[in-house]
Write a structure and sequence with these properties.
Elements lengths: L3 H24 L8 H5 L10
Length: 50
């Protein structure tokens, strides 16, 4: 039972870190262009023309 004194605050702290990361990614615009990556994978920019 003594281990719960350490595990419960650690779980809450990790949850808050994950929640902060979610809000940071929303604020910085990580989810603005969801369709752009789907179209970018179809482009052949990395192939050199000879």
């Amino acid at each position: 039972m003594n281990v719960l004194v350490f595990l419960i605050p650690a779980a809450i702290a990790l949850g808050l870190v994950g929640l902060y990361g979610l809000f940071w990614s929303l604020k910085s615009g990580q989810y603005e262009d969801l369709e752009g990556a789907a179209y970018r994978i179809l482009q052949d920019d990395d192939i050199e023309k000879k």
